[in-house]
Design a protein that fits this description.
Number of helices: 7
Shape: flat
Number of strands: 0
Largest sheet: none
Length: 124
């Protein structure tokens, strides 16, 4: 296995991909250890073991690597972005003004993503 990794490291494209993957994993692990400000998480976390025993919260905590119980930055993953995109889509389809802006002015995709970003910030 070490020989395989050494051979993969010699190829520049694979080396870039391995380093990028390692960097992303490192960033995620750091973000999963930084608590969200103003969340009162004690030594055992937000919920005690008795409160979470046999509930959906226990499953969610297990899937996030205990990050959800301590209220960390990356505990919610991409959920706020997805929710704001869905809300933005509902607003676009329900308001004639937004429909006009979207269809007639041809809002570029970058601006639509920028709106989703700001909705994400507001959602947090």
């Amino acid at each position: 296995m070490l020989r395989t990794l050494a051979n993969a490291w010699k190829i520049a494209d694979l080396r870039k991909k391995i380093l990028f993957t390692a960097l992303i994993v490192l960033i995620f692990r750091i973000g999963a250890a930084i608590p969200v400000p103003f969340v009162a998480a004690g030594a055992n976390g937000i919920f005690s073991d008795a409160q979470m025993s046999g509930t959906f919260m226990e499953y969610l905590n297990m899937m996030t690597g205990n990050a959800f119980n301590y209220g960390t930055i990356f505990a919610m993953s991409i959920t706020p972005y997805i929710n704001s995109s869905i809300i933005g889509t509902f607003i676009m389809n329900s308001s004639p003004v937004w429909q006009y802006i979207y269809f007639m002015v041809m809002l570029p995709l970058t601006k639509a993503r920028l709106h989703a970003f700001f909705l994400t910030i507001l959602y947090l």
